[in-house]
Amino acid sequence: MTIDYSFTRYLAAKKSVDDRALNRAVWKALIRALPPQPRVLEIGAGIGTMAERVLEWGLMDEGTYTAVDVDPANIAQAQQRLASSHLQVELEAIDVFDLVAREQGRRQWDLLIAHAVLDLFDAPTALPQLFSLLRPGGLFYFTLNFDGATILQPTIDPAFDALVETLYHRTMDERITAGKPSGDSQTGRHLFHHLPTAGAEILAAGSSDWVVFGNDGRYPQDEAYFLHFIIHTMHGALNGRTDLDQERFAAWIAQRHAQIETGELVYIAHQLDFVGRREAGE
Ligand SMILES: C[S@@+](CC[C@H](N)C(=O)[O-])C[C@H]1O[C@@H](n2cnc3c(N)ncnc32)[C@H](O)[C@@H]1O
Fold it and tell me: How confident is the model over 190-230, as pLDDT tens digits?
């Protein structure tokens, strides 16, 4: 079995998984708090699936939607997917921290969205910068923040499965990007501390776990691909590590891929959603 791993196809396959996962109470709190004709900024927007969802789920009919992502290939896909949108959509391939430096608080949005993104950053240093993009009293919607549990069923070997999970999470905690710490495998729970510390009020929070399972040996939509990509990512993260028996790990990875082929694999990732406000200031 040879699989062509494409990040943009993974993001497209992830959409139906995310649709099920997003916390509906948090979503409703966002609807209640959103002003009319909002100016929305989404960071790390990938191929634009959250922008599509905002339209499909009727969050807003009017207003503007700015979406940025550091990867030009993602923005190119987003351009195609959102071409027929009736919202005014502005897309840009830019690193969000370069956007912060460029704007210097000049342009401030009513709503900041970061979906499956914040756990890639060092939250204590990133949040104050991200909040400079919001007007005082502006809203944030931070979703799918990973929170320290990767569950794969059926069990292959309890001790080895647990070791793989622990080491996989450690790679998130030890991640360095551009010379700086970037990531936290318990981002979700830590946001209850980091958000108020950065001057924000939490209006609602709740879990948004990914839960992927097969029926009659088949997964919905492109979710088998999504699962293969997740297992491939775990493989890449731990490949070659001396603290893990690599022969055994290769067999474990092969078995997980085989479980996807037969529709047996169940995958659960614990995540949390937040909606809140930047403090209004003086
Ligand atoms: C896990 S993906 C999620 C993408 C999209 N939000 C979704 O859920 O489909 C994380 C995204 O953040 C983008 N990203 C990572 N660091 C970034 C940065 N510093 N500035 C802008 N985008 C960034 C990546 O290119 C990637 O598309």
Answer: 999 999 999 999 999 999 999 999 999 999 999 999 999 99
Across the strands, what pairs with 187?
none
**46-91 confidence digits (pLDDT tens):** 999 999 999 999 999 899 999 999 999 999 999 999 998 888 899 9
**Residue 209's CB: how many other CB atoms inside 10 A?**
16
Handedness of CA 171, 173, 174, 180 (dihedral sign): positive
- In the chain, what is the greatest distance between 2 CA atoms, to the nearest angstrom? 61
Residues with CB under 6 A from ligand 1: 11, 14, 43-46, 49-50, 68-71, 74, 95-97, 115-117, 120
pLDDT tens-digit series, residues 111-158: 999 999 999 999 999 999 999 999 999 999 999 999 999 999 999 999
Q: Which is it for the CA torsion 75, 26, 281, 88, positive or negative?
A: positive
The alpha carbons of the chain give a radius of gyration, in whole angstroms, of 19
Domains and CATH numbers, the chain: 7-278 (3.40.50.150)
Nearest alpha carbon, ligand 1 atom 11: 44
CB 43 within 8 Å of CB 112: yes
The pTM assigned to this predicted structure is 0.97
Relative to the CA of 97, which ligand 1 atom is closest?
A: 19
Residue 98 DSSP class = H
Quick one: tokens of 233? 């990512």
